[in-house]
Amino acid sequence: MRQVIRVRKQGTGARHLECYTQEGWAKMSARRYPVIIEQTGTGYSAYSPDVAGCAAVGDTQEETRRNFQDAMAAHFEGMREVGEPIPEPRTSVDYVEVAA
C-alpha cells in the first residue's frame, strides 16, 4: 500500500509528519457537501448547512463556489490541527416546482 507523507512546519519551526495511505487520503477527500449560494447587495455569499462556522463571498457565483471550496479546505485543516472531527455531509438538496 502506497503512503503519502506530508511535512509541515508549525509554530516555532518544529517539524511534524503526517502519514496517510492513498486509500485514506482518497476517502478523506471524497466527501461532497451541499453549498448554498445567495445573492447579496454586493455579490454572492456561500455556506453549507453541514459545516458550521465556514462561509465565503465572491463577485460571481463561480468565484464564490471556488472561494467556499478553499475556505472549507482551510476550515477542515484547522479542525484537524485541534483534533476536532470533520462533520459528515448530512443535508440533502432538492427542488420543488410550484405555480407562482
What does this entry look like structurally?
With 100 residues, the chain is α+β, with helices and mostly antiparallel strands. It folds into 2 domains: 1-30, no CATH class; 33-84, Double Stranded RNA Binding Domain. The protein has helices at 22-29, 61-81, and strands at residues 3-10, 14-21, 36-39, 44-47, 55-58. Strands 3-4-5 form a 3-stranded antiparallel sheet, with helices on one face. A two-stranded antiparallel ribbon has the order 1-2. A hairpin with a 3-residue loop joins β1 (3-10) and β2. It is globular, with a radius of gyration of 17 Å.
What are the secondary-structure elements, in order, as H or E? EEHEEEH
Question: Gyration radius, to the nearest Å?
Answer: 17 Å
User: How many strands in all?
Assistant: 5
Provide the number of structural domains. 2
| CATH domain fold name of the largest domain | Double Stranded RNA Binding Domain
CATH architecture of the largest domain: 2-Layer Sandwich
Write a brief caption for the model.
This protein has 100 residues and is an alpha+beta fold. 29% of the residues lie in helices and 28% in strands. It has a three-stranded antiparallel beta sheet, with helices on one face. A two-stranded antiparallel sheet has the order 1-2.
